[in-house]
TrEMBL record, chains A, B, C:
This is Sulfide reductase. It comes from the Bacteria. It comes from Acidilutibacter cellobiosedens. InterPro entries: DsrE2-like, DsrEFH-like. SUPFAM superfamilies: DsrEFH-like.
């Protein structure tokens, strides 16, 4: 189709990530070239729960790393989370409707070739390390994001 | 003007809906073709309070339907809601300034011909039924949204 | 470069403002023409703490003016604010990494020539006065925002 979509994923919430990944998967199915750029809380969505480590981290960075969701499945709802009850309710409803899980959508996006980038500056601020993220995530600068966004037909900040 | 704006309305909050509807009305006044696509919490904004029913719903769907705002007037503020006090304050300030109410903006948008769409997959996940929504809302898929967004000059995720 | 980016700044939160200002500064460094349009809570980010006054305000407007952040440094985090503890943690981590402060980014944006606009209708609704804002902020209507956004290559709602 020769069209491009660029999603800047700032939020680290389950429902927003689900919306973004549905768009990414649908876009790829239509032949659109899709890029996701993870910044700030969005980086929590692409942490690899099996690779998180305290090594080389300051006291604040360790604290912060422990207070934030370790991967996409731990991410909370943006609304009505009710300490996890609202999210459980949503997950049950998704199961009733045979909706794929968020991990299915993430893996689908990777398999279909959605490009995943992480923001260099955010990574430094949050104290996360590149090798704690999913191996498909490449680190780029804000300038590189802007270059990509300028070439895209759709840009969304989520 | 032959220009198009596409708003993806993910949030179900009063202040964000107000911002979106002000843009939609202003756009139409300038001759821009405006489309709003309601997904997730945004669907609560286009529920018709007079048509909400428990029929054909699972236990979770009934619970969820009762915990979420029944139409645009019930929607909370995204910030400083303070159990409704912040919203009441904002409404009083809008009245002092003779700002039209959110329902006026929604009806204005409909009258001016803003196209309202609901997301098929979100509707299923949330357990809402098409006939519980405002009659102006047509249900489409994420692919149809993307097709429309690709043809638009402005795309916003709100 | 002859390219344009338009950021609609709806949110009044520290982390979202930081993301927006990093994009604005990076864009300018690349030769992109950058416009920021502050609406609703976003207006709190461009209040000048030294110029806030109760003059000519109704009871509700005075209350509201006192409950909202007085300038960009007072703005809370969108997540994990924990009554200020989360924000303090983030600030410490930024200092450890020699990341410039948010005021540095705001001043950098102004110095580089990022255009700052405030939304006329939001200003009225929130009860803020034009002369309480940073002097670089010009008040425009939603229609003027849309005209600018239509001419832009990137539009983001933050």
């Amino acid at each position: 189709m020769n069209k491009k979509m660029n999603i800047l994923m700032f939020s680290g919430e389950y429902d927003k990530a689900l919306a973004a990944l549905i768009l990414a998967n649908s876009g790829k199915q239509m032949g659109i070239d899709v890029t996701m750029f993870f910044t700030f809380w969005g980086l929590c969505l692409v942490r690899d729960p099996k690779k998180i480590s305290d090594e080389d981290k300051s006291a604040y960075e360790k604290m912060f790393a422990n207070l934030t969701p370790k991967g996409i499945e731990e991410s909370p709802l943006s609304k009505m989370n009710f300490a996890g009850v609202g999210k459980k309710m949503l997950l049950e409803m998704m199961e009733e409707n045979d909706t794929p899980s968020i991990v299915d959508f993430l893996n689908g996006a990777i398999k279909k070739g959605v490009k995943l980038y992480g923001c260099k500056l955010s990574l430094e601020i949050m104290g996360f390390k590149e090798d704690e993220l999913l191996k498909e995530v490449k680190i780029i600068t804000a300038e590189e994001y802007l270059k990509n966004a300028l070439e895209s037909d759709i840009q969304l900040f989520i």
